């Protein structure tokens, strides 16, 4: 398959949604291959132990390194990016998703408890790129739901996965701005009207209006995104909005 996803987790059932929806159809069509692996198959004690108390003390448990090393030796081809979801990671963004979508595949290592012994990521960096990433400023119980998010964000950018290429090019975040509002019929609904410009047939006026709505919404909801735009991203018309 053109793009391969491997997920290692102690909760393989949590990843069953990967076989559904957009990604399930991409898998049926042979565009994406997804394999989910139970970390415990790489333990060797009776209790299939994957965690232990943290050195230095403190709450919670840390995932032991050896099962992870065996899992990655079995699952990861040399050079394949290892993604480690963690609230302490670098931000996962649309730009990161677009970059990963150009690679041959990804291996995800889902930690639970207080995370995975740091030496696993350090050791794994000897065999290819390692990305410790966060999907937002909140704390999840484990990386599994973050993997669902990241796999969906990456695979919908793969050639052929989303039917309408334009719907990807115009996505919120694709140009660093939020997408403005969308409307469909009826033109008048329960006392709320579709903006008249969208009914005008004036395509240049519609494009200008959409750009202005995108800028207004971004300024209101995500002023941090506006501030981060590169020099030259905003025209004089944009600044007049
Ligand atoms: Cl990627 N993992 C966990 N456990 N919590 C998170 C996260 C990831 N991103 C935000 N919170």
Automatic annotation (TrEMBL):
What is the name listed in the Swiss-Prot or TrEMBL entry for this protein? tRNA (guanine-N(1)-)-methyltransferase
* EC number of this enzyme: 2.1.1.228
Say which species the protein is native to.
Geodermatophilus africanus
| Molecular functions per Gene Ontology | tRNA (guanine(37)-N1)-methyltransferase activity
Catalysed reaction(s) here are: guanosine(37) in tRNA + S-adenosyl-L-methionine = N(1)-methylguanosine(37) in tRNA + S-adenosyl-L-homocysteine + H(+)
Its localization reads: Cytoplasm
Q: Where is the tRNA methyltransferase TRMD/TRM10-type domain?
A: 4-226
GO cellular component labels: cytosol
Q: Which NCBIfam families match?
A: PRK00026.1 (NF000648), trmD (TIGR00088)
Sum up the protein's function in the record's words: Specifically methylates guanosine-37 in various tRNAs.
């Amino acid at each position: 398959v053109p793009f391969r996803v491997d997920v290692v987790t102690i909760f393989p059932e949590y990843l069953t949604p990967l076989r559904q929806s957009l990604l399930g159809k991409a898998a049926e069509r042979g565009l994406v291959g997804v394999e989910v692996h139970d970390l415990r198959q790489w333990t060797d004690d009776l209790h299939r132990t994957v965690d232990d108390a943290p050195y230095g003390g403190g709450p919670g448990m840390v995932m032991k390194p050896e099962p992870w090393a065996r899992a990655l030796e079995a699952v990861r081809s040399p050079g394949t990016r290892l993604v480690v979801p963690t609230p302490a990671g670098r931000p996962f963004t649309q730009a990161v998703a677009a970059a990963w979508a150009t690679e041959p595949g990804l291996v995800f290592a889902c930690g639970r408890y207080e995370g995975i012994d740091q030496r696993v990521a350090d050791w794994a960096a000897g065999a290819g790129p390692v990305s410790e990433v966060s999907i937002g400023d909140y704390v999840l119980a484990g990386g599994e739901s973050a993997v669902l998010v990241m796999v969906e964000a990456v695979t919908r950018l793969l050639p052929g996965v989303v039917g309408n290429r334009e719907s990807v090019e115009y996505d919120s975040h694709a140009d660093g701005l939020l997408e403005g509002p969308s409307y469909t019929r009826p033109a008048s609904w329960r006392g709320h009207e579709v903006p008249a410009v969208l009914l005008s047939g004036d395509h240049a006026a519609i494009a200008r209006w959409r750009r202005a709505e995108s800028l207004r919404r971004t300024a209101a909801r995500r002023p941090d995104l506006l501030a981060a735009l590169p020099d030259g991203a905003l025209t004089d018309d944009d600044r007049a909005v």
